[in-house]
């Protein structure tokens, strides 16, 4: 039986070989199949055998043609020295399609060929060699398409969509002690610093940094490279090109590459400008560029979510890390009061961006952890700077201002606090909540308020204490009260005209106004008692070596008018009575030598306009050397 089966196999094999040898001649093949099938019923399935043989031959022919197409486009191929240096994607889309079809056929062959003979092994070697050449050419074309179709970031359109929020406030470069001098000078010269909270983008701002028509071509190449096992090379090319594009975008946005050490050495005025550009860059990069890159990766590599994520992370992490390094450098820099608001701006924009970054980097744990680290550094810097500012206000020891005018520290701190209120939400999230244990306002218990509310109340209390301490430096008691009225009134006005009023409350304002009324009375007593004494009988003939005229200042219009009225009401009646008793003596000049020289001069001035009550008031003020109201 075994011999019979072996003989049948030999017969079938011989018949198959005969027909195979005739395969090139279709008519001869068909005739031979018919003769053999009639000769022996064992050869009745010879046509099925030869169908498989025909398919193998057809596949071989297709492979030969595909191999030829690939070799023709091999720039280093010795068999084709006239081959071109790039694929005909731009000018010859038909040839490009033909090339991709050839690649597809070779991929199919390598995936489906079972090596059962030396001949099959030879075919596989040729296929793998052709595939390697094809992948090299596809890699080059992939790179060229990415580069040729890149669209630069439109800076004009970008800045046209930017909206800025500004706050006017004068800063100085240095500590709060230096601010005392620089603030006054800046205010007088009108060269205040405008703090921009940061630019915001229009809600409809969107850009494509690559031409849409190129995406399908990129996808066609990426699909074939990934299918052939060349996903690493494909991702590397993609990431390198797109990374350079993002670097160029940062340059357009004004973000330069600096080491942390370099940032530390930059003067704050220059660094502040860089920080403003950094804030805009964070918004543009996260909201526009990164989402655009994510979308592009999904379109080009839609066959593999893993490759999408890997390419996106490799493409964008360098750009993000450059931005984060700058934020870290600012956070660990030397603390000073003028930096606080910019640090808060940076913290806020990064908090907003962090949610988007977490959504973008599904597996980018490094990026997300770095974001959290920079946020922590910025928050610590902001809180630390705020605490240093509180300490500086308490410890500030500059001299009081000549003439009792508003002290620069009062202006500086109150404008600083007005700006702080704009950051209430952020500061409430950063500052410890110790409102329950706070006792301020001369022992009064304050109702539970926000952390920033408590700290600002304490800060104003410190400022008031500082002002009262400075007022004791005046030798003239009257000038001390002028100084207190000017400064506390300025604080009240700043509170009333801002959100500070909500924090401090109307009761706080009423209490300070009560203090001003007390100081008003004390001022009249201290400044005019001696003048009134001269107008009494016992004052005649007395001596006075003091001059009442001074250069005191009251900047507030209302307070200045109130003081004028009070002085007039206090002095004019006494002076009229004095003139009634001694007017004739003054006219005749008797006892004149015994009167104070300044009083004589004042009486003459009053007599010049005795018929005009208002003018008389003014002359009386001149008479007694009133403040420069």
From TrEMBL:
It comes from Lactuca virosa. One of its GO terms (biological process) is protein transport. This is Exocyst subunit Exo70 family protein. Pfam families: Exo70_C, Exo70_N. GO terms for molecular function: phosphatidylinositol-4,5-bisphosphate binding. InterPro entries: Cullin_repeat-like_dom_sf (IPR016159), Exo70 (IPR004140), Exo70_C (IPR046364). Belongs to the EXO70 family. Component of the exocyst complex. The keyword Transport applies. Residues 276-543, 549-588 form the Exocyst complex subunit Exo70 C-terminal domain. Residues 70-89 are annotated as: Disordered. Keywords: Exocytosis, Protein transport, Transport.
């Amino acid at each position: 039986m075994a011999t019979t089966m072996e003989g049948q196999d030999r017969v079938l094999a011989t018949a198959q070989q005969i027909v195979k040898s005739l395969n090139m001649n279709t008519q001869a093949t068909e005739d031979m199949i018919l003769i053999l099938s009639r000769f022996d019923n064992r050869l009745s399935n010879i046509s099925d055998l030869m169908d498989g043989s025909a398919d193998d031959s057809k596949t071989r022919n297709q492979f030969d043609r595909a191999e030829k197409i690939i070799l023709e486009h091999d720039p280093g191929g010795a068999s084709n020295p006239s081959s071109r240096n790039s694929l005909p994607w731009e000018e010859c889309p038909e040839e490009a399609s033909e090339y991709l079809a050839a690649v597809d056929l070779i991929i199919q062959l390598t995936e489906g060929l079972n090596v059962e003979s030396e001949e099959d092994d030879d075919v596989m070697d040729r296929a793998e060699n052709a595939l390697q050449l094809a992948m090299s050419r596809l890699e080059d074309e992939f790179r060229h398409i990415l580069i040729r179709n890149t669209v630069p970031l439109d800076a004009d359109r970008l800045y046209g969509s930017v909206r800025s929020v500004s706050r006017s406030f004068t800063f100085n470069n240095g500590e709060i002690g230096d601010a005392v001098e620089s603030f006054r000078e800046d205010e007088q010269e009108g060269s205040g610093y405008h703090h921009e909270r940061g630019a915001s983008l229009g809600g409809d701002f969107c850009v494509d940094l690559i031409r849409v028509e190129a995406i399908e071509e990129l996808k066609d190449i990426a699909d074939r490279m990934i299918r052939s096992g060349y996903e690493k090379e494909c991702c590397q090319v993609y990431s390198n090109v797109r990374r350079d594009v993002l670097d160029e975008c940062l340059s357009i946005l004004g973000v330069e590459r600096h080491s942390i050490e370099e940032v530390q050495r930059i003067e704050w005025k220059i660094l502040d400008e860089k920080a403003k550009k950094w804030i805009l860059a964070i918004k543009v990069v996260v909201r526009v560029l990164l989402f655009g890159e994510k979308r592009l990766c999904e379109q080009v590599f839609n066959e593999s979510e893993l490759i999408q994520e890997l390419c996106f992370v490799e493409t964008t992490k360098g750009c993000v890390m450059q931005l984060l390094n700058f934020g870290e450098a600012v956070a660990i820099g030397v603390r000073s009061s003028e930096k606080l608001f910019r640090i808060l701006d940076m913290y806020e924009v990064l908090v907003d961006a962090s949610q988007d970054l977490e959504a973008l980097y599904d597996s980018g744990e490094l990026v997300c952890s770095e974001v959290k680290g920079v946020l922590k550094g910025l928050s610590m810097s902001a809180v630390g700077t705020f605490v240093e500012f509180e300490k500086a206000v308490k410890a500030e020891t500059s001299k009081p201002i000549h003439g009792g005018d508003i002290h620069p520290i009062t202006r500086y701190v109150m404008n600083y606090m007005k700006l702080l209120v704009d950051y209430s939400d952020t500061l409430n999230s950063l500052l410890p909540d110790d409102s329950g244990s706070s006792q301020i306002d001369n022992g009064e218990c304050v109702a539970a308020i926000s952390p920033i509310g408590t700290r600002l109340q304490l800060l104003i209390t410190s400022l008031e204490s500082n002002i009262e301490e400075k007022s004791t430096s005046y030798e003239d008691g009257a000038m001390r009260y002028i100084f207190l009225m000017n400064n506390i009134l300025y604080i009240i006005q700043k509170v009333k005209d801002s959100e500070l009023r909500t924090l401090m409350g109307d009761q706080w304002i009423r209490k300070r106004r009560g203090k001003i009324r007390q100081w008003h009375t004390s001022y009249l007593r201290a400044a005019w008692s001696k003048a009134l004494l001269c107008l009494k009988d016992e004052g005649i003939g007395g001596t006075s070596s003091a001059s009442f005229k001074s250069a005191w200042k009251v900047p507030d219009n209302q307070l200045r008018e109130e003081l004028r009225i009070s002085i007039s009401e206090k002095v004019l009646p006494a002076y009229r009575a004095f003139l009634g008793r001694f007017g004739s003596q003054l006219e005749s000049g008797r006892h004149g030598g015994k009167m104070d020289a300044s009083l004589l001069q004042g009486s003459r001035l009053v007599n010049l306009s005795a018929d005009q009550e208002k003018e008389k008031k003014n002359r009386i003020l001149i008479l007694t050397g009133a403040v420069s109201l």
